[in-house]
């Protein structure tokens, strides 16, 4: 859905995004974006909070829509303010970061699918100590600041 924060709009507004640190063992699920915001950078699954949704509901919906994975519970980790005026599409997001842990047992193994290939090159598990580059700006700032989703 196009919104009122695209370039040229006379009254852009901040929007709320919910994104998920999906953790498996020592790895996190990342996908390389195909987007006017953070194109070709590695980011978490996630998207826009819809009217009436809880953070948890939004996290589960976005992960399911983008990867096919069914996450159980998720928990709030932190929130950051992301003003991205340098992007081809200027935007401002208040980004809610959630965490959900998936089982490492073979039985519970869930393989992510790239269900929105127009938005993402594909989903992969990356070890936290060997993250791919470049990371999406909001995520890059957290990592540089020492944020660790495994110990938060
Ligand atoms: P939707 O319309 O399906 O709800 O949204 P989407 O198309 O999946 O949106 P998105 O760009 O994936 O996520 C919305 C915004 O969330 C994105 O433009 C900027 C913000 N955002 C961050 N960090 C991250 C992140 O790590 N991953 C994702 N996907 N979005 C992030 O600030
Ligand atoms: Mg998304």
Automatic annotation (TrEMBL):
<dbReference type="Pfam" id="PF00293">
    <property type="entry name" value="NUDIX"/>
</dbReference>
<dbReference type="GO" id="GO:0005829">
    <property type="term" value="C:cytosol"/>
</dbReference>
<dbReference type="GO" id="GO:0046872">
    <property type="term" value="F:metal ion binding"/>
</dbReference>
<dbReference type="InterPro" id="IPR020476">
    <property type="entry name" value="Nudix_hydrolase"/>
</dbReference>
<dbReference type="GO" id="GO:0035539">
    <property type="term" value="F:8-oxo-7,8-dihydrodeoxyguanosine triphosphate pyrophosphatase activity"/>
</dbReference>
<keyword id="KW-0378">Hydrolase</keyword>
<comment type="similarity">
    <text>Belongs to the Nudix hydrolase family.</text>
</comment>
<dbReference type="GO" id="GO:0006974">
    <property type="term" value="P:DNA damage response"/>
</dbReference>
<dbReference type="InterPro" id="IPR015797">
    <property type="entry name" value="NUDIX_hydrolase-like_dom_sf"/>
</dbReference>
<dbReference type="InterPro" id="IPR000086">
    <property type="entry name" value="NUDIX_hydrolase_dom"/>
</dbReference>
<keyword id="KW-0464">Manganese</keyword>
<dbReference type="GO" id="GO:0006203">
    <property type="term" value="P:dGTP catabolic process"/>
</dbReference>
<protein>
    <recommendedName>
        <fullName>Nudix hydrolase domain-containing protein</fullName>
    </recommendedName>
</protein>
<keyword id="KW-0479">Metal-binding</keyword>
<keyword id="KW-0460">Magnesium</keyword>
<dbReference type="GO" id="GO:0019177">
    <property type="term" value="F:dihydroneopterin triphosphate pyrophosphohydrolase activity"/>
</dbReference>
<feature type="domain" description="Nudix hydrolase">
    <location>
        <begin position="13"/>
        <end position="148"/>
    </location>
</feature>
<dbReference type="GO" id="GO:0008413">
    <property type="term" value="F:8-oxo-7,8-dihydroguanosine triphosphate pyrophosphatase activity"/>
</dbReference>
<dbReference type="InterPro" id="IPR020084">
    <property type="entry name" value="NUDIX_hydrolase_CS"/>
</dbReference>
């Amino acid at each position: 859905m196009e919104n009122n924060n695209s370039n040229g709009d006379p009254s852009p507004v901040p929007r709320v995004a919910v994104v998920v640190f999906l953790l498996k063992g020592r790895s996190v699920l990342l996908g390389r974006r195909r987007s006017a915001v953070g194109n070709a950078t590695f980011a978490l699954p996630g998207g826009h909070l819809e009217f009436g949704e809880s953070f948890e509901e939004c996290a589960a919906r976005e992960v399911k829509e983008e990867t096919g994975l069914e996450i159980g519970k998720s928990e709030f980790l932190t929130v950051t303010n992301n003003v991205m005026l340098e992007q081809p599409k200027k935007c401002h997001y208040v980004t809610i970061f959630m965490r959900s842990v998936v089982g490492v047992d073979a039985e519970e193994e869930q393989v992510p699918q790239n269900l929105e290939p127009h938005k993402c090159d594909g989903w992969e598990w990356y070890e936290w100590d060997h993250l791919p580059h470049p990371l999406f700006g909001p995520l890059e700032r957290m990592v540089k600041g020492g944020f660790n989703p495994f110990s938060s």
